[in-house]
């Protein structure tokens, strides 16, 4: 134990631009007296996000979970949906909220994303769609998944909650599948306090989603669906506009921190850094997961505890697996024998602190504790 306790290093921290800049947006809101319902800041954020992300149509939401629930509604998905157990619980909850049966398939041991072969093996006559997650912002095998979807006539809805700004040579990762859903929660790389968005391929789909997030209203007197209230307020949109002005800087600092960790942890027996997505992918370094393997002197939970004693907070993303929670564990696909890779990785994974304002000496403090075990 250190003699004086050093400052706490959290696992994540939002990037907060100067408060005065936010206040000036608040003044605009006070002047316009428009607080929500697709106001001017909301419209501007949708347009600027399309430009920044390189997509054609985006619908803002009050949070990512409402985005997932609405995406499934928009495509009228029923029956079974194949998804990953290795994610945040909202991925599968969105299915239950739609009365859909989740079918869990195992993940690839290198990418931690759904393994296309396991997706194909899980298809039944009831399967309507696939809901993969770009875990940690690293792209799924979108080509293989699309081939399966085309062969079996399935829809693909990506939970892209981690994938803000992720691009490949062919452009934004958010253009793949039928719809992609982002989260702008405070813990994500781009935040609107709470928030989210759906990326649509065409104006017609965006229109349907915009109706669904506003109670199903088409105009003052016409309601076409049992929609929900999924609208983002002007305050959230203001935060988004402000975040956008700093996002490139924020992402490039994340990439720097990622590289510092990789170099510093290289050669530590039993610690495996999860591979980066490859040189043709622009990733966002949203998380820094490591695997604590049996050859490391401490078990994963012991290492987490050791770091905590040094005032360093980490998260076990994703442990427990979604399939372990009581509302899922009775499903046949939730059985551990069906999910050996996800089960093993969930036992070993630890996400280390990474965020834009994390200082290099703090990264070194984290590494020191890991190396000294
Ligand atoms: C954060 C997250 C969500 C939920 O997003 P909210 O904006 O918090 O509702 C869904 N899926 C994944 C993978 C997430 O990480």
Describe the structure.
The chain is α/β, with parallel strands linked by helices and 373 residues long. The chain has 2 domains: 19-244, Aspartate Aminotransferase, domain 2; 247-372, Aspartate Aminotransferase, domain 1 (Alpha-Beta Complex). Helices cover 36% and strands 13% of the residues. The protein is built from 12 helices and 12 strands. The strands form 3 sheets. A 7-stranded mixed beta sheet has the order 1-9-8-5-4-2-3, with helices on both faces. A hairpin with a 2-residue loop joins strand 6 and strand 7. The longest helix has 19 residues, at 247-265. Pyridoxal-5'-phosphate binds next to helix 3 and helix 4.
List keywords for this structure.
Aspartate Aminotransferase, domain 1; alpha/beta; 3-stranded antiparallel β-sheet; binds pyridoxal-5'-phosphate; 373 residues; 36% helix; 12 helices; Aspartate Aminotransferase, domain 2
Overall strand count: 12
Give the overall shape, derived from the CA principal axes: globular
Question: How many distinct folded domains?
Answer: 2
Strand content: 5-15%
Fraction in helix = 25-40%
Strand order of the largest sheet: 1-9-8-5-4-2-3
Any idea of the CATH class of the largest domain?
A: Alpha Beta
Please tell me how large the radius of gyration is.
21 Å
Q: Could you report the average pLDDT, rounded to the nearest whole number?
A: 97
- Which structural class best describes the helix and strand composition? alpha/beta
- Number of helices, counting only DSSP H or I runs of 4 residues or more: 12
- How far is the first residue's CA from the last residue's CA? 12 Å
Largest beta-sheet characterization:
7 strands, mixed
CATH fold description of the largest domain: Aspartate Aminotransferase, domain 2
Tell me which CATH architecture of the largest domain applies here: 3-Layer(aba) Sandwich
CATH superfamily of the largest domain: Type I PLP-dependent aspartate aminotransferase-like (Major domain)
Order of helices and strands: HHEHEHEHEHEEEEEHHHEEHHEH
Which residue ranges are poorly predicted, with pLDDT under 50 across at least 5 consecutive positions?
Answer: none
